[in-house]
Specification:
heterotetramer; A: 410 residues; alpha/beta; Peroxisomal Thiolase, Chain A, domain 1; 4-stranded mixed beta sheet; B: 429 residues; Rossmann fold; N-(1-d-carboxylethyl)-l-norvaline Dehydrogenase, domain 2; 8-stranded mixed beta sheet; 3-stranded antiparallel beta sheet; 18 helices; 45% helix; 12% strand
Chain lengths: 410, 429, 410, 429
């Protein structure tokens, strides 16, 4: 990009295994923990922060609380008067917050912005939660009266693959198993203590019930509570910050490229419009190629890892060919060849992704950016991809309606 | 040759500890023999293991059998024999005797005991047996509690302890706490002293009030007397007695078994295992609870205590202002506040006191921190020091409660680190 | 501002008197009408629009629909793939969307952005709607179990004025009467056909019930459905657009200045912290003075009109001194002297404001900008302030928690 | 001297039209005498006016009285006398005779009539009376319907009509429609022809089906037969008869009163005013409706018609795709679609036909547009042209239904303007 560089200065995520309703905590407590942790980790100080952008999907429904941006002001006396805003694009909410933070920095309006992604979802029954999630799709048409609208929609994504290219569910099971395996290496992952393996993912039964269509429990990301706080900064702030840490600005990760597209809301419309095209979800593909172009990448092989939006195994299956790891429809090859596993040519979701690490809806985009940051700064601990220099993230909202891609690197 | 563990024989696999720990091994890809007195018992253990894993596929890794017909097959194949039989010295020793002729030299034997004197267990066994014998004290249920205290006795090969610590950490993702071979190791030694003191206070202030005051908001997922109900009052008594017998320290006098508690056991109020008779709590059909009155040993309805500083602290915790909550607790006045402060102070003082005794001095507070978090779901002592405003303020608090101020506290720097995931130990209730 | 000029190219608002639930319309229909009307009015074409930013408070609650940004994509085939986002800051949601649009334009990311503010509120009973609005405050502390949380909070604002400076409720009645009178001149105003006058506003009774404290029905803005679509554009686009209209870019209104602050969420905290200060709501004041400074205005007398956030009469009372029409606490003087009436020295809410024109929460910020546009282009019809060149808007969310000010002019 | 209106005498203020219109005047700051046969009647009118304004304060502007005791006080003070007495020529003329000696020269007198022949009303009155006499046809209720047709007779001072048009617009914020003195003026002439045709079709297709087909989604807030129930079948009949008598045009034959409708009136099924007996609709205690069967004149339960193109059109309207919905209606096939197309086409054809007859030619369709929107809450004819895809496509539709294609349609440009607030006329139901 010819515009000013925007730096990513790391941050903090809460433990996605926690249940904040059981802890009797307000959603702002989760934001506060993410924020306080981020200060400790990044050594950014309250007075550095000039705005706070909050990504959240539906606290109105899950927590009966809107206006989340304003809670940030309570976290420190220095924040009185701080400009804040909440951003929403369903499951892509905090990626949108990050995009806007990038724009504000490039416009020269602010030098350092806290981007918080947050969702508290364990406040309601699974049925009610599934219904709430339905508001990320066209509720009246795609969700009302349907018990699990999103498993149904993403099951249909699998059906489209099956019809156009063929699809073997065992490849989906492999995706699930890899994400669970990676999650075991991630101390913040929701499922890190859960048992899951490929054999279990292949089997339908008491402990792996069929939800709808081809989607079983192990194909789904699970209801998760979590918050993430990361920092985006201008060149000017990054220079000062690097000095503070005794580093050079060049050592700090930045946003190398990005893509942002919106497809038509209804899944049937998406699919009807992609009929005869190489990619099932052309607008997801465009967000990816836009990001490659802006980052000056030739293709996916210029990346060292990907954090993608595996809300269901089918969405990761889609991401594999849409990122260009294989020809369209051939995602299974990358799975069979071990390309996407830790140690593979291009690991996907070293963190465990949404299936393994968890999917607190509004927090996921920020969590992906934080994990990209950790990878390129080699601070990902047990789930580090050795020597990672460039990592892509794909955060989608609805049935791949809102698509946001970032390339993070140095 | 590098030592590897591929096959494990679990003895006592019909019990909760044996089956769930055995299941954990199977989940992690080990081949596991589930052995107990009867094949049916082992089979029941397998079912518990499946329920813990929430998956039938682990059964592929498990072979069930009874001692008589399968010990001779399993033990020679095992790289590790995990003994989870009854917490009785003679039972364990008899089992070890049966193993002796069957086990290959070099095969690891570990016991899950924490309250027996470790040195006594392998007495009379071969040198190779003793060299490869240690305690691996898994906390229960291992699917939720990742703590595992590990300890050799005098003859144990130190390299083997190190190997097992590494194996438990890497392969089974345990929070491994190397401990010294003292009764109760680290976790039970500390927790049960506090339980004892709280049972003593309950005689005066009541069960409901004590669990309200020392409730989850003070840094634990479950209130203390409710925890004793879960453990079982009989087990509680056994642990306290073992600690009374085998340990001695400046707070030894707090290790009490109040009369009313003995009477409760005598009348069969053992806790959750005697659901109909109750324990400290008794669950009514309505889902409500009644609490035992230590004076009359009858159950009385809940009176829903409401103490202002407690409610205010919970409200601060509810919005994530943990340190503000603990400042509030620290500065609160009155009898109830004094009790909460005393218990927190006792916990901190005792934990730091035991550094060097239950864990190696070189680990500082970290081993104890880890076992309290991962074995009990309690805020660690150093985390409480952080929450209470630092070691100076904490030392003042300890002194004001007439408690020793351990040198290890004054030298500690662990508390200064930002405590990862601290909030989870402080439910707002 | 030394940064690139951002132009405001007008737009369209729906008739705020309509009841879209009674018409059995989906919230996206309201957005669509605002959008289609805006094309007709502005002569902007679909291919001109590079992003769509949607301001909405709580469609999740009122309409069981999130992810509103995505609906814009359905409005024209040209919008497939369009970057979209929904912005939320309670009642200031669409002002926040406009702020972000401004930032994206100044960053050079887009040249022309559609900003849509929308809220459908007549879907639920008044009690339920009042409860939903409570999520704009700290729900657990300020709203749960309270029938009308916001009338209560803004009644307290009056109480603070009374305690610090004295307050005569007849001045509030005058504010209501002026807004209703202005609304009669506005063909889009919710109350344009309602009867209301000063005498009625002074009286409590069957037809003007007391809600809570000093707040009567006539002190309140009413439940409203509405959507507004406006366009913000870069210098480059404005130049081309002016050519298209046969005008010079200098004839087009632009954002001369802006202010954005967030005060602590809880009203009691706000008030406690302003104790002893000249302004009751110092962060609202700061948003205003920031906007003056950025626009290079000396004070309010450089303005020709103000569109302010009179969710209640007390909030307009507050705005009068906070904008600087009087010394702090002396708002009554400007009311008595007729300063704020049409024809006065500095008319407030020529449109009728929230009380008269209506307050579809998420649409209000955009509606204010549209009215500012109309004033400075002398296209406000019967409610035109003659010769208006500079107009300020103040949009607040919650109990003056989020504060956004714009100065629009040429 | 500039003419001003400060004081108004409303005659017939006990009735709905008189009281609500009088209330509208009071709301706008005029001093209003509410006069009727009895003071109690006028007082009841005041209450209706207060309910319409939702405010008691308008009573400050209203003086109630009966003709006998107050006419002589009110009329000399009045700048405008608004006559709303019974729609009966002789009653009105008798009232005018009483006014003659009381009114100041130059005082405006207007009648709210629309169906009587305007020319007949002031017959026999003084020249000054006739010069200041006109019709101001307010639609009801004026708080919701802003239409006001205005019309002088042959002797009326044109400047006065202009003054009143301006006054009604500016002071009372009426949508003023200057009309020519033809029976039914513009709005009723058009609407009731359509009502008549729909009552005829209802005999064959049923009441529920016709109101379903010509439902709100076709561009009206209320379905047509339901509207007749609201108007009252007796009033409907009177208007149709008046139009039959006093008008004549190419679609005159559609102006029918079907037998079953006469019978309904004979049996007292007048609509909402005879709630127990019903009209086209009958409301059950359950809140459900039954519909009259025109053949048997008994009420039959709702059968909830469901016609695919209708439901699809409603779905498109539901999401704001109005033009797509009307393209769908225009292109739909089948009997039901034919009926909807016919009614829409008749409405458009008849409206454009009457340009120049009911309104001045120079206004084009705009006056008729305005009265249909603000007097009936119907989509205007030109808006339907827009929705149906423009005048060429509309002309084709008209021709295909055997309807005349008026020149005023072919010359019209109004439909091309983006229709402000168009969606409100198309509820998705």
């Amino acid at each position: 990009m010819s515009r000013e560089n925007v730096y990513l200065l790391g941050g903090y995520q809460t433990d996605f295994a926690r249940n904040w309703a059981r802890e009797n905590k307000h959603i702002s407590a989760m934001m506060r923990e993410a924020y306080e942790g981020s200060l400790a980790v990044t050594r950014i100080e309250p007075r550095d922060i000039q705005a706070a952008f909050i990504g959240n999907f539906a606290a109105e429904l899950y927590c009966m609380q809107g206006h989340l941006g304003a809670f940030f002001v309570d976290f420190d006396p220095a924040f009185r008067g701080l400009p804040t805003c909440r951003f929403e694009g369903a499951c892509a909410s905090s990626a949108l917050a990050a995009l806007s933070a990038m724009a504000h920095i490039q416009a020269g309006l602010y030098d350092c912005i806290a981007v918080v992604g947050v969702e508290q979802m364990k406040t309601v029954s699974p049925a009610k939660g599934g219904d709430y999630l339905g508001t990320a799709a066209w509720y009246e048409r795609e969700s009302a009266g349907i018990e699990f609208p999103f498993p149904k929609l993403f099951g249909k994504l699998g059906d489209v693959y099956e019809a156009r290219y063929g699809l073997d569910n065992r490849h989906l099971a492999r995706i699930a198993a890899i994400n669970y395996a990676n999650a075991k290496l991630n101390p913040n992952a929701q499922t890190r203590d859960w048992f899951m393996d490929y054999n279990h993912a292949c089997r339908t039964g008491q402990y792996n019930t069929a939800i709808v269509g081809r989607i079983k429990v192990t194909d789904c990301s699970q209801v998760t509570d979590g918050a993430v706080c990361i920092y985006l900064a201008s060149e000017r702030f990054a220079a000062e910050y690097a000095r503070r840490l005794g580093q050079t600005p060049a050592a700090l990760p930045r946003i190398l490229g990005w893509g942002h597209t919106t497809a038509p809301m209804e899944f049937v419309t998406k699919v009807a419009e992609s009929e005869g095209q190489p990619y099932v979800l052309p607008w997801t593909r465009k967000a990816i190629t836009d990001a490659y172009r802006r980052a000056g990448l030739k293709d996916c092989w210029d990346l060292d890892a990907i954090e993608t939006h595996d809300c269901f195994t089918t969405s990761e299956y889609m991401a594999i060919d849409h990122f260009g790891l294989t020809e369209p429809g051939q995602s299974w090859k990358a799975i069979e060849e071990g390309v996407i596993e830790m140690g593979g040519r291009l690991p996907i979701n070293p963190s465990g992704g949404l299936i393994g690490c968890g999917h607190p809806v509004g927090a996921t985009g920020a969590r992906q950016l934080l994990d990209a940051y950790k990878q390129v700064t080699e601070t990902a601990g047990d789930y580090q991809v050795p020597g990672a220099r460039r990592v892509a993230t794909l955060n989608i909202g609805g049935s791949a309606t809102t698509n946001v891609v970032f390339i993070v690197g140095r | 040759m590098e030592r590897t563990i591929q096959t494990v024989a679990v003895l006592g696999a019909s019990g909760t500890v044996g089956s769930l720990t055995g299941g954990l091994l199977a989940q992690n890809g080990l081949r596991v023999y589930f052995l107990s007195r009867t094949r049916e018992g082992s089979q029941k253990g397998l079912e518990k293991a499946i329920a813990q894993a929430r998956s039938e596929v682990i059964a592929d890794n498990i072979i069930c059998g009874d001692y008589d017909s399968m010990l001779s097959e399993a033990v020679p194949k095992a790289d590790w024999i995990l003994e989870c039989v009854a917490e009785d010295l003679s039972v364990k020793q008899a089992m070890y005797e049966r193993l002796e002729p069957l086990r290959r030299p070099g095969t690891i034997v570990s016991s899950v005991t924490s309250s027996l004197v470790l040195e006594d267990l392998p007495k009379g066994r071969s040198e190779d047996f003793q060299k490869h014998f240690l305690s691996t004290h898994f906390y229960n249920p291992p699917g939720k509690m990742s703590a595992c205290e590990i300890c050799g006795q005098s003859k144990t090969d130190p390299a083997l302890v190190e190997f097992m610590a590494d194996f438990l950490h890497r392969r089974l993702r345990r929070a491994v706490i190397p401990v010294r071979p003292t009764a109760g190791f680290a976790g039970n030694r500390i927790a049960f002293l506090l339980f004892a003191r709280i049972t003593e206070l309950a005689a005066e202030y009541g069960v409901e009030m004590m669990d309200y005051l020392i409730g989850p908001y003070t840094g634990r997922v479950m209130a203390p007397l409710a925890t004793i109900d879960l453990v079982g009052l009989d087990i509680h008594k056994a642990i306290i007695q073992s600690l009374q017998t085998h340990t001695c320290d400046a707070l030894h006098s707090k290790l009490v078994l109040p009369d009313y508690l003995e009477k409760m056991i005598g009348q069969g109020h053992l806790g959750r295992k005697t659901r109909d008779k109750g324990g400290f709590y008794k669950r009514l059909e309505s889902g409500q609870y009644e609490y035992i009155d230590p004076k009359s040993l009858t159950y009385i309805p809940a009176f829903q205590p409401h103490v202002r500083f407690v409610e205010e602290a919970k409200q601060l915790i509810h919005i994530g202002r943990y340190r503000d909550a603990f400042e509030h607790i620290r500065e609160a006045k009155g009898t109830e506040a004094g009790l909460v402060q005393e218990i927190l102070a006792t916990y901190i003082a005792y934990s730091y006191m035991l550094v060097g005794e239950v864990t190696e001095q070189k680990y500082g507070i970290e081993g104890i921190d880890r076992v309290m978090m991962t074995g009990f779901n309690w805020a660690s002592p150093s985390l409480l020091v952080y929450m209470l405003g630092g070691k100076e303020k904490t030392a003042e608090l300890l002194a004001s409660k007439g408690l020793p101020v351990p040198a290890s506290l004054l030298e500690d720097t662990v508390w200064e680190r930002y405590p990862f995931n601290a909030g989870r130990y402080f439910p707002a209730k």
